[in-house]
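Task: fold both queries, return tokens.
Query 1:
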Amino acid sequence: MATPRKQQISLVNTPYYHCVARCVRRAFLCGEDTLSGQSFEHRREWIEEKLHFLSQLFAIDVCAYAVMSNHYHVVLFIDEEKAQQWSMKEVLERWHRLYKGTLLTQQHCRGDVLPKQELTGHPP
């Protein structure tokens, strides 16, 4: 059984993490597939651009990375101090650069007055 991320990350122990993501079923991430002769090299730039974009959104710095033919490695630094300085609105605005968000988060970012029960999740 997989371990939840909140149990895997401990900023008390270290803010640095080595992460790996790999393709399955002999799929190619980058480079040339020797079986089909098809080149997937264009994906390398996509991955590098996405890493750079995400590091601008979150309080996570990319220390190093390597994009291989069927997997990639990244060494990340979680900048807890930077994250603690962000307001709720700034966190939501950053999140909305990736995802539409919910009606509640969109209303909060617009500055709409929200009923207390919507903020706490408890009925009045």
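Query 1 returned. Query 2:
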Amino acid sequence: MKKLYFPSLILLMLCLSSCSAIAGIFKAGAAVGVIAVIVVIILILWIASMFRGK
């Protein structure tokens, strides 16, 4: 597995320019961040509603 990892990493680095790779990482990070914030807000509202119901 380790022998296959390094050549595939080199091939990936040669195929992608650094700007497009960084742009893809930030786009994915922004999407995951937005989803995480929405999930946390929903969890807080759900927990708060559990305490109000009693």
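Both queries returned. Flag for query 2: The helical segments are 2-15, 18-53.
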